[in-house]
Amino acid sequence: MSRSTKIHIDLAAIAHNAGLVKALAPDTKIVAMVKADAYGHGAADVSLALEQHVDRLGVCCLQEALQLRTAGVQLPIVLIEGCFSAQECMQALQANCELVIHSELQLAQLKALNLRQQITIWLKIDTGMHRLGLSAQDLVKVYGELKDAAWVEKVILVSHFANADNLASDSTVLQLNVFGQMLGSLQASDKIKAISLANSAGIMAWPQSHHDWVRPGIMLYGISPFAQPHAAAQKLVAAMTFTSKVIALRSVELGETVGYGSTWTASRRSIIATIAVGYGDGYPRTAASGTPILVNGQRCQLVGRVSMDMICADVSDISSVKVDDPVELWGKILSVNEVAEHAGTVGYELVTRMTSRPTRLFVNTNQH
Ligand SMILES: *Cc1c(COP(=O)(O)O)cnc(C)c1O
Questions:
Q1: Are 153 and 93 in contact (CB under 8 A)?
Q2: Which whole number is the average pLDDT over 182-203?
Q3: Is residue 272 classed as helix, strand or coil in its secondary structure?
Q4: 260 assigned to active site
Q5: Global confidence as pTM
């Protein structure tokens, strides 16, 4: 029998979550963010499942877009950081991609192509995140050129929020105000066709940010962007379920330790289940003793260090655990965000850094 560490991806859950985006922002179009292998969920399968539900796919770079084309994905794809050379721009346009311009350099690369066709530009503006995007000054310059360029059919203005997941912060409202000012500084032109600001947290918590195009990522995978419970997030259905099995059981005496570095010491006689999963599969090594685990659907706790191939759980308080019993590391019942909190990170990172070792299964539960 083979090792039973598995990643189940529920494509029906992803379609359900896309439906929630539509319900929350009914008058907008959707760029479904499938960068970084669809946040570790498998970009080809996820994109093929999403094509009929959304208007664009969003990836980080041309390489990711070309992988989707190889898989047969037809929908236009937005390169959310644009291109890194003129030659890449050409390849991207041939592959039915739409490009972000976030710098004067990228404008120069596109101009160098002397395009004969007309294209859509996603013009990225820095409204306070200070990571990518044109400043107020550069925007006026770059936009002035795009407005008069024969090869530009339309411009979609884009910006990104730094704190939309923090409902107590006034940062999102400030960014919206800066955006309004920057928009106001541009000469009127019918080339500005649309505005795109909202990520998942914007979609769920800041309806005034919806405008014309929303860009959901994490919520499509059924993971909340918020640290606190949020009404809209309750309706999400987790798409990834990470499972394994118990492969050994033993009892340890009071004072005995478990695992590398002997970091956990039994404070009573305890039953320890060894589970076939470790950081070699994507389970985070930083998960501390006390991290929740579901064995036979019952909550228990990780004890000792996470190894490459195995973890241990204290199953003393749950009934009749046997070798071969099923384990959920995270999924529909145990949220990846809860595990992430015990590992000093966020759900985004855990799902994105799964390894290729576990068996990956795509399922369509249709139970939502
Ligand atoms: C990744 C990304 C998103 C999606 O963010 P989520 O928080 O996952 O919804 C939206 N816009 C841009 C520019 C991104 O890079």
A1: no
A2: 91
A3: strand
A4: yes
A5: 0.96
